[in-house]
Specification:
Length: 295
């Protein structure tokens, strides 16, 4: 033991080299090394504390897991702040000088970290208000997928292509967010359909409802409906509106399967899909006009 103590004292003496001075405090290599070790231990202990609070301390409560994460995160950062102050005092660094230095750097660093702070505050808002939750199907900023993780500064969304996209939390506060499963998994899909002029509109309605009723992914209640929207430039415009819960996360598959079935039914019953029609007037070289049509 005496040998180890002497060795430690020799190491400390060799590291007793002044690096810089804060006020009346002489900062040495030893104090910097000591502070670094304390900070590493502090981050390790607070991470374990946060995990323990979420998985053990708050697990038996009725608090939602997102709120538990928010509480544990706030506690962790408070402990980090207090622990950092204690670590600075333990290494003998003058806190008055540190506060003056921090005040000088704070103004410049604040502008650079404003996005980080904004994302952190937005993360707390998300965890407490829960506009989006883990497992929700969302769409924000052109990204659509399932929420798989909500952290203090960012949220991870997994797309159908199995690509994880990291989205800053501020986007969920400042932009419009589409949540496909906010209250439940029931979503109404709209499938636009156009038919040629002269088609039997009642037959079109019957065929569209038949397609919806025969699809295993379309709910019987609320019942699907057909809406005759408008007399378009090239055809008659309809909307098939159907509810589904099974393919909310794969809406492309549902729309595609319904479109295949609609096309087959229309072909069996001689319902024509319209093509764009335009009247073309050609100016002849002799000054006359030639009329034609493009269907």
């Amino acid at each position: 033991m005496d040998t180890i103590a002497r060795l430690a004292e020799q190491v400390r003496t060799s590291l007793d080299i002044t690096v810089f001075t804060l006020g009346q405090t002489r900062v040495t290599l030893w104090s910097l090394a000591y502070l670094t070790v304390l900070i590493i231990l502090l981050f390790y202990v607070t991470a374990r504390l946060q995990r323990w609070a979420v998985e053990r301390l708050l697990r038996g409560s009725n608090v939602h897991i997102g709120v538990r994460h928010a509480i544990a995160t706030i506690v962790r950062y408070l402990v980090l702040l207090i622990g950092l102050i204690v670590a600075l005092q333990a290494t003998g660094i003058d806190l008055t000088a540190v506060s003056l230095l921090a005040g000088g750097l704070g103004l410049g660093v604040g502008f650079g970290l404003q996005n980080v702070v904004s994302n952190f505050i937005s993360g707390l808002i998300i965890l407490f208000e829960r506009p989006v939750k883990i497992g929700d199907r969302i769409e924000v900023g052109g990204v659509e997928g399932d929420v798989v993780e909500i952290r203090a500064r960012s949220t991870t969304v997994m797309t159908n292509d199995n690509i994880a996209i990291i989205i800053p939390n501020s986007k969920f506060v400042t932009e419009n967010v589409v949540n496909w499963s906010y209250r439940d998994e029931s979503v109404r899909f709209r499938i636009p359909v156009s038919v040629a002029y002269g088609s039997d509109v009642r037959l079109v309605e019957e065929l569209l409802l038949r397609v919806a009723s025969e699809s295993p992914d379309v709910l019987g209640y609320p019942a699907p409906v057909v809406r005759f929207l408008s007399f378009g430039e090239s055809g008659l415009d309809f909307d098939l509106r159907a509810w589904s819960t099974s393919l909310v996360r794969r809406k492309g598959k549902l729309i595609s399967s319904l479109n295949f079935a609609i096309y087959d039914e229309f072909r069996k019953n001689n319902i024509q899909i319209p093509f764009p029609q335009r009247d073309v007037h050609i100016h002849a070289p002799g000054g006359g006009w030639t009329e034609g049509s493009n269907s």
